[in-house]
Here is the input.
Amino acid sequence: MRVCQKSLGDTDQAKEVVREVFVRFYEQREGLPQISSLKAYLYKSVHNAFNQLKQSKVYHSHHLKL
Here is the structure.
């Protein structure tokens, strides 16, 4: 969460991203492939969720300018 928090600059938003990842992980746990490193899997999942959020903000910002 610290990486996400540092990048976002918002503790509440970082917590929400991490919470979403854990909820999705729990809901899809039975259909997931064999995971050799849970820590790496969760880190990458949070990283991907953060990137999607960042892209969404950029898109929204560009959309408003148009």
